[in-house]
Design brief:
Blueprint: H1 2-18, H2 28-38, E1 44-49, E2 55-66, E3 75-85, H3 94-108, E4 113-116, H4 123-131
Parallel strand pairs: 3-4
Antiparallel strand pairs: 1-2, 2-3
Helix pairs in contact: 1-2
Length: 146
């Protein structure tokens, strides 16, 4: 749990800096509670470790199914909510290892689609996602009124 909190602090700091109007400053206690809850709510947490069993990355995903409706076909999606890799380990294959583990999990769950979203300011991650075969499919527009 300590490793997840440590890695989560890094990703939360980046989000809070990029969109302080949406994201709160990270709190170790709040992240600890958050991750503890993910272990019991059906979320999937994949951990990447060094040979010395030191956690250097994680991926948090949720399996969602949707029945067909008049607008959309039925779907089975593994939605990746978080992927975090230690800064020193980035570009070293850890993210790719986590993504491959997510693909394997998706196969076990009979998922047809992996999906994730990323904030516009996280451009470094966008190149990684595209290199992993993800393509943009939806644009969200926003107008702040304050």
């Amino acid at each position: 749990m300590v490793a997840l909190v440590r890695l989560g602090l890094g990703i939360q700091k980046m989000h809070a800096a990029g969109r302080p109007d949406l994201f709160v400053e990270p709190s170790s206690d709040a992240l600890h509670d958050f991750f503890r809850a993910r272990f019991s709510d059906g979320s999937h947490i994949l951990l990447a470790e060094t040979d010395a069993h030191v956690a250097v990355g994680y991926l948090l995903a949720e399996h969602a199914t949707r029945a067909a409706n008049p607008f959309k076909v039925a779907s089975s999606i593994l939605h990746i909510h978080h992927i975090a890799v230690e800064l020193e380990q980035q570009s070293g294959g850890v993210g790719r290892q986590l993504m491959h583990a997510a693909v394997k999990l998706a196969g076990e769950l009979a998922v047809t689609t992996l999906r994730l979203d990323s904030w516009h300011f996280n451009t470094h991650a966008h190149g990684f996602f595209e290199a992993e075969g993800f393509t943009p499919v939806n644009i969200v527009f926003e107008k702040l009124l304050q």
